[in-house]
Amino acid sequence: MNKWFGLADCNNFYVSCERIFSLSARDIPVVVLSNNDGCVISRSQEAKDMGIEMGVPLHKISDYIHKKQLEYFSSNYALYGDISSRVMNCLNDLCPAVEVYSIDEAFLDLSIIPDEELYDFGVEVKHKIGKWTKIPVSIGIAPTKSLAKVANRYAKKYHKIEGVFVIDSKEVLEKVLTETPIESVWGIGRKHGKFLKNHNVNTALEFTKLPENFIRKHFSIVGLRLYRELKGESCLSLTEVTDKKKAIQYTRSFGRYVNTLQDLEEALTTFASKCAEKLRSQQSCTNAVSIYIRTNPFNKKAQFYNSITLNFDIPTNSTMEIQQKVIWGLKQIFVQGYDYKKAGVCVTGLVPNDAIQGNLFRQEADGKSQKISKLMDLVNAKFGKDTITFAVQGSKSNWQGNAGKISPRYTTFWKDIPKVE
Helix, strand or coil for residue 137? Predict the structure, then answer.
């Protein structure tokens, strides 16, 4: 049986999510902005054709917006996360095995599909994902995961209508690698790309023609695996079970400057709550929590940065316990008189729920706070995000990010469900 991998990649994913519900956005170039409406993080094909670059600040495209030549949306991660789950669930229903790689990408194990049926199978998957979720996808199919990435890029660039491309022969492989710039290869990056170009390696095919000794000398084991994968040797297997995170971080830039202890306390306890929810979702506990606060480094005013790391007596995933540590830590590092622009919370030293080690004075986690956290999770899962929060998290009005044009949470919030009249 031949080994075959597919890569399903949602096209312009954030924009495509917005276009599901916004009919007007389907007929005009569209971009989605980052937190605080800072810069472009997703572009429709029409926006790309206008020359709008990834990461361009909002103010540089404001003329297009004022002239109604361009539509923009604030990022709506609740919507994107839910649509992503729907796409991945569909892929799981359609494909033998799936590895979710990112919010808009998934690797597929297609080894049981007969070679002559691979293209038609890819077309069928693309069609059904589009029909069931309204999200357009491109699918690349090849004998290795790295080549599936290359095939997917080729499908988007040269086979936009079909949206599916299969690398199924040596001749096709050489043609595709010849037309793939070295900096576009998955895993190469800017630094290695510059190094290779200095050695007259400009395409993926030229990379595969290098002596293996050269790769061993100048690249890590990851680079060697990539080299072999591009030559058609499968070195990366499909991972169906996602590894648990070893650290969880939640950071945000504020929509406006924050200069009071209370506002920072509201922000950081909210971030702590998010970290605790993620800990419980992967059935982990944390041994330590770190927090930091900082001013705007681009501001000409006096700068300030401070951080602190605090350990727990017993690993925990309780929102209440983590928030208490964060509040105490904030009081140790806060200095009055500065305009703070960003803050963050990071939990580290993660261990599984069933591998918690007590100490001489306490053998188990606080049962009461654990029950409260679980109850909050159940209520918020049933009635919507942040239905119940701790009072210390406040109203968010003084520090939450700017989102001047955020779409409704159509699929995750009862009040935002579209109404048909």
Answer: strand
CB atoms within 10 A of CB 293: 23
- The architecture of the domain spanning 248-393 is 2-Layer Sandwich (3.30)
Tokens of 42: 């997703």
- pLDDT, tens digit, 9 for 90 and up, residues 234-259: 998 887 556 677 889 998 888 788 98
Please, which residues have CB within 8 angstroms of residue 293's CB and are 6 or more apart in sequence?
264, 268, 304, 305, 306, 307, 330, 333, 334, 340, 342, 343
Q: How confident is the model over 316-330, as pLDDT tens digits?
A: 999 999 999 999 999
Strand blocks (E) in 269-339: 284-295, 305-316
The pLDDT value given to residue 20: 94
Reported as type and span, the H/E element at residue 100 is strand 97-102
In angstroms, the CA 9 to CA 129 distance is 11
Bridge partners (DSSP) listed for residue 290: 309, 346
Measured between alpha carbons, how far is 193 from 180 in angstroms, rounded to an integer? 12
Cβ(215)–Cβ(224) below 8 Å? yes
Provide CB contacts within 8 A for 255, sequence distance 6+. Answer: 36, 399, 400, 401, 402
The two three-digit tokens of residue 252, written as one number:
């945000």
- Residue 420 tokens read as 């048909």
- The Cα–Cα gap between 275 and 346 comes to 7
Strand runs labelled E in 36-91: 40-43, 71-74
Q: How many helices (H) and strands (E) does the chain have?
A: 14, 13
Long-range contacts of 186-190 (CB under 8 A, 24+ apart): 186/146, 186/149, 186/150, 186/226, 187/146, 187/222, 187/223, 187/226, 188/226
Tokens of 362: 């306490």
Own/partner pairs for 129-134, CB < 8 Å, 24+ apart? 129/8, 129/87, 129/90, 129/91, 129/94, 132/86, 132/90, 133/20, 133/83, 133/86, 133/87, 133/90, 134/16, 134/19, 134/20
Quick check: 385 and 413 in contact, CB under 8 A?
A: yes
- Helix, strand or coil for residue 70? coil
